[in-house]
Design goal:
The protein has 759 residues and is α+β, with helices and mostly antiparallel strands. The protein contains 24 helices and 20 strands. GO terms for molecular function: carnitine O-palmitoyltransferase activity.
């Protein structure tokens, strides 16, 4: 085979005349280029380690310190107050005047270096103190406290240098452990509107008993962990919420992201795959070289022009990462990266795969179902059938790959005579597919459909949705606006003629491997999921902001109203909030169902006056914003209670209060997908390039999963999921109008027009 010959750098034969040496210059050139790339990576990593290691200072600042020290010594002054002399005494004895001068110079440089390192530590400590200040988030627009006025220029000064991706990591504060009395008090306040008076009295008694007895003991252990660990929540959250779950991760844990709503850049499946894969690998290169700008939180109108860095730790395991199954717990494994081809060459390779009509090997076609079913059978089969031989080699290739690509034989998107129904089927396809044509264990799987539509399915344990959304935004924008396509829809560029054929993986799957049992479990789960996706175009954040109301608060209160009208009552509501203001932060829960939101909805439904409803709505939105800010700044409820529960399990003690809290169902689970890189999309000149966002499955069997993305000024995209097996939940209901209350019902979401116009 041609590729086999190209892999040989030289050949030699022994003849009577001597040794006949034949060199392959092409192969040697590739060896040389490979070595150059390897050394460039090493040099780049060393350089990046130095730059981020001295941040917020710069490596060149050492020169200024050294010159300053030497200048003062030249002026017969000792800035070290005798330390340079002490250092000089520990250097080798001087024999000549020249050596004495040299020792003085060396001593001065050693002192300069020590002084420089001390200044770096001081600057880093100051930056950490500044980033620990979060009161600015609670201040009203235009009302800045004196403390914040001092804080703003200091933050700008210490973060003015252009940072690398991980430059801020060592300066981010650690997540604080809230006082146990504060957490218990906030918990009781959050469940008050959901409980009757006797139920609330009973829960209050349990909470008070826990706080005064077992709670303090558990809290001491938790504070000890917070002193030792970087983040007292994240490792336990990853292990016990994700990796120790023994049920299927498909639908229950993994989530999806969609393509553009109105536009498909090309209808050529292989070409779309070529550009998408290239864009993803370009992003990986930015991550590896730390060229990606760290995500920073803009402080908006409160502190104009000031940005606060967010933790970037989740980016580390984005690529070449797989969740491998175990009997008791899964493990996240991460490998080093590999090279990439050009978009046109990738398209050519993908097309060769699509043109290959050879049948699958026995057991190969539905092998991916192992990753979609229960974890214990998958772990047992992995150990039995994939621990050696060709199966292990083929599985290693999948698990070590940067990501997984599915070339789907279906067409998806908002198209045809039933665009709404097709959009729903598009969501279900990305969420679970055929249950065997995705590799759900990979950090993320990219799906390229027959008509060129794309999407992804992401595993949840290694990172949260905003990290994946950032990657997907970059991918869509790079694919459409930078890489582009030819007039006939193919990738730009040429194909190397000697490019070898793609190599098919080899499997030897025995009939008794029981892949069908995992597929049956996954198929039953997939068939039960009801998905509905719809773009809401009546208005968006533009009109909401004119009312001086937070768009997120407006939507969350609308969801509360929708659920109340759907089920006739209120429920425990989960809204995901990030804690990435802290090092290795993941998420916290915003309990959106509050006393204030319930009071507004009750008043609205009982026919209170417009003025009273407006007042109550304003209180509810302000309360929601405050809850969100508290969650972001480490004063949430649920992660603290979760960690206390983990400590109680380690100690072997039972807490009726914690057991009841951790078993409460989240019948309304919600999440906003943030748009983080609007600079990549020019919606004025390209208004059709609108992202659909993504969604996830319902958390409770009798509840809803609701994801939404606020796009531009005039649109909100919603993803609603529930289960067919529950007769009380329906993801898609018809659109209806009511002239009396003047509200729109779309899906299960109600937007009250009169309040949008009145505020």
């Amino acid at each position: 085979m041609a590729e086999a010959h190209q892999a040989v750098a030289f050949q030699f034969t022994i003849t009577p005349e001597g040794i006949d040496l034949q060199l392959s210059y092409q192969a040697l050139n590739q060896i040389y280029l490979s070595g150059v790339r390897s050394w460039k990576k090493r040099v780049s990593r060393v350089r990046n380690s130095l730059i981020k290691g001295v941040y917020p200072a710069s490596p060149s600042s050492w020169l200024f310190v050294a010159i300053g020290i030497l200048a003062t010594m030249y002026m017969q002054s000792d800035p070290s107050m005798g330390l340079i002399t002490k250092i000089q005494q520990h250097l080798p004895l001087r024999y000549t005047t020249a050596m004495s001068v040299g020792q003085t110079m060396v001593s001065a440089l050693v002192f300069s270096t020590l002084l420089w390192l001390s200044l770096i530590l001081a600057l880093r400590f100051c930056l950490k103190l500044l980033l620990s200040y979060h009161q600015w988030m609670f201040e009203k627009h235009g009302r800045m406290s004196n403390t914040t006025k001092v804080w703003v220029p200091l933050v700008r000064l210490l973060s003015s240098r252009k940072p690398l991706l991980y430059s801020y990591q060592s300066s981010l504060p650690h997540l604080p452990v809230p006082a146990i009395q504060d957490t218990v008090s906030r918990y009781l306040e959050s469940v008050r509107p959901l409980l009757t008076d006797p139920e609330f009295k009973r829960m209050s008694d349990l909470a008070n008993e826990f706080e005064s007895n077992l709670g303090n003991r558990l809290q001491r252990y938790l504070k000890l962990k917070a002193l030792w660990a970087t983040n007292y929540v994240s490792d336990w959250w990853e292990e016990y919420v994700y990796l120790r779950s023994r049920g299927p991760i498909m639908v229950n844990s993994n989530y999806y992201g969609m393509d553009f709503l109105y536009v498909t850049p090309t209808s050529v499946q292989a070409a779309r795959a070529g550009n998408t894969i290239t864009a993803l690998l370009l992003y990986r290169r930015k991550v590896n070289r730390e060229e990606l700008k760290p995500v920073r939180l803009h402080t908006f109108l409160r502190v104009p022009g000031t940005v606060i860095p967010l933790c970037a730790a989740q980016c580390e395991r984005m690529f070449n990462t797989t969740r491998t199954p175990g009997v008791e717990t899964d493990v996240l494994q991460h490998w080093l990266d590999s090279r990439l081809l050009s978009p046109r060459e990738i398209e050519d390779q993908i097309q060769r795969i699509l043109d290959d009509a050879s049948p699958p090997l026995p057991g190969e076609e539905k092998l991916g179902a192992l990753t979609a079913g229960d974890r214990i059978p998958w772990a047992q089969m992995r150990k039995q059938y994939f621990s050696s031989g060709v199966n292990k080699r083929s599985l290693d290739i999948i698990e070590r790959a940067a990501f997984f690509v599915t070339l789907d034989d279906e067409e998806q998107g908002m198209r045809g005579d039933d665009p709404e129904g097709n959009l729903d089927r598009y969501a279900k396809s990305l969420l679970h597919g055929k249950c065997y044509d995705r590799w759900f264990d990979k950090s993320f799987s990219v799906v390229i459909y027959k008509n060129g539509k794309s999407g992804l399915n992401a595993e949840h344990s290694w990172a949260d949705a905003p990290t994946v959304a950032h990657l997907w935004e970059y991918t869509l924008a790079t694919d459409a606006f930078q890489l582009g396509y030819t007039e006939d829809g193919h990738c730009k560029g040429d194909v190397e003629p000697s490019l070898p054929q793609p190599q098919r993986l080899v499997w030897n799957i025995p009939a008794e491997a029981q892949v069908s049992s995992s597929l049956a479990v996954a198929q039953a789960l997939a068939d039960d999921v009801d998905c509905h996706v719809f773009p809401f175009r009546e208005f968006g954040k533009g009109r909401i902001k004119k009312c001086r109301v937070s768009p997120d608060a407006f939507i969350q209160i609308s969801l509360q109203l929708a659920y109340y009208r759907d089920r006739g009552g209120f429920c425990l509501t989960y809204e995901a909030s990030m804690t990435r203001l802290f090092r290795e932060g993941r998420t916290e829960t915003v309990r959106s169902c509050s006393n204030e939101s319930c009071a507004f909805i009750t008043a609205l439904e009982s026919g209170e006056t417009e003025e009273e409803c407006r007042r109550l709505f304003q209180l509810a939105s302000e309360r929601h914003q405050n809850l969100y800010r508290m969650a972001m700044t480490g004063a949430g409820i649920d992660r603290h209670l979760f960690c206390l529960y983990v400590v109680s399990k380690y100690l072997g003690v039972e807490s009726p209060f914690l057991k009841e809290v951790l078993s409460e169902p989240w019948r309304l689970s919600t999440s906003q997908t943030p748009v983080q890189q609007m600079n990549l999309f020019d919606l004025k000149n390209h208004p059709d390039f609108i992202s659909l966002g993504g969604g996830f499955g319902p958390v409770a069997d009798d509840g809803y999963g609701v994801s939404y993305i606020i796009v531009g000024e005039d649109m909100v995209n919603f993803h609603v999921s529930s289960k067919y097996s529950c007769s009380q939940t329906v993801s898609n209901v018809s659109v209806s109008w009511s002239s009396e209350t003047s509200h729109t019902v779309v899906g299960n979401h109600i937007y009250t027009r009169q309040y949008s116009q009145a505020f």
